[in-house]
Amino acid sequence: MPKSVGDKIGEMMHHIAPRCTITLHKAPFMSSNLYIPKTCKHCGNAFTARTTVTKYCGDTCAKKAYKSRKRKEKIQATLTKDMQQQKEAVQIPNLNTVNNKDFLSVTEASQLIGVSRWTIQRMIQQGRLKAVPFGRKRIVARWQIENLFN
Prior knowledge:
By secondary structure, this protein is an alpha+beta fold. The chain has helices at residues 59-89, 95-99, 106-113, 117-126, 142-148, and strands at residues 3-4, 13-14, 24-25, 36-39, 46-49, 103-105, 131-134, 137-141.
């Protein structure tokens, strides 16, 4: 059984054990005299902390705060991933391939001029552009688009 060497609590102690040399060490019952009024970061209730790093009023609030923090991290990771996928999905059309073609689809013609597809459709209906049906598509000759601006 350990015996105290001094009169005060927390002073050095030594062991009385068979086949053992006497060793001195700190008493295991050191207590802090800190009483810090704080507010819980999770629930907002006031509490008295015994250490300077305490953030939560108890184990329940600490666990709930941890779970909430992890949930927010997952949501943020998902949103970031979705944003990256949307950026990859919305690609700027490669105008170099459009510039090299002599015959363009309605969509390619609209991209070349920078107008909507429906504007090209209206110009075809009005007779300002001539389009040739090609399967399910309508094909516009590039020289017709260039003649619009001459």
